[in-house]
Request: fold
Amino acid sequence: MIDTLAEGFMSEYVAFVEFLPRLTIALVVVGVIYLVGLGVASGIVKILKRSSMQEAYHHYFKTLIKGITIFICIIVFLNMVGYSVLSASLLAGGGLTAVMLGFAFKDIGENFLAGFLMAFSRPFNTNDLIETGGITGRVKSIHLRHTHIRTSEGCDVFVPSAQLFTKPLSNYTLDGLRRGGLTVGIDYADDVDKALNILREVVQKTSGVLQSPGTSASIKNFTDNYVELQAFFWINTKDQEKGLAKIRTSTMNNCRVQLIEEGFTLSSEVSTALTMSPLDIQLQKNGGL
Reply:
């Protein structure tokens, strides 16, 4: 019994000694591959930092390259130590698992894929004012699966990347310009040309309105009760202290005040109804008459 155990131990020992050089070479090769993968990941991150790509993607690409490197190391190691069948099984099983997970988590995978593709051609950056799917707000942070948007009402919305990738998206900050406008009604008897000049001058002098592109004013419509005028102006969307709503309110109020001072009659679709109550009049005849 003892002799049998001793012979078995010696046999395994000899096999291990014979296997040791192959194991050592495999570990060295895997170590080199892993170090090369780390170097590639670091190099790509340095390149991305010099580009306009968001910092949120730097960590993702670094982690992705590391993951691929580790998987390659496992496959190479198994093949070098003589477990090629096992490595082939891992490759086949990994593909099957990926297909199953793709069906099980279709929406999540779709968002990740959309985020990955948008990393190379993203139409917005952090702090940009965008609108998508009826949601308007500033971009607070960008992630692979979603984008964090904060609306003017203070609501934090996390928009899936698939929506940003497949649906129309408006970026009000890409060129730094956004157009605003206002409408006002004046009486048909008023001087339209004078009113238009007043609108242009007042709007152009309002704080927050850009001098270039210039302000424009024109007749919008003829209604039953008044002549409807409109004026358009441009603002700098990157100036978060002066938003469109604030500047538009200032321009409307300034135009209202100036038009009233110039004697214009401001009209609207709301009319004032006067109710005439009957009056009881008693006549008393004077005795002297």
Remarks:
- The helical segments are 2-50, 56-80, 84-104, 106-118, 161-166, 192-205, 244-261.
- The domain at 177-267 is CATH 3.30.70.100 (Alpha-Beta Plaits).
- Residues 2-50 form the longest helix (49 residues).
- Strands lie at 129-132, 135-142, 146-151, 156-160, 169-171, 177-186, 216-222, 227-236, 266-267.
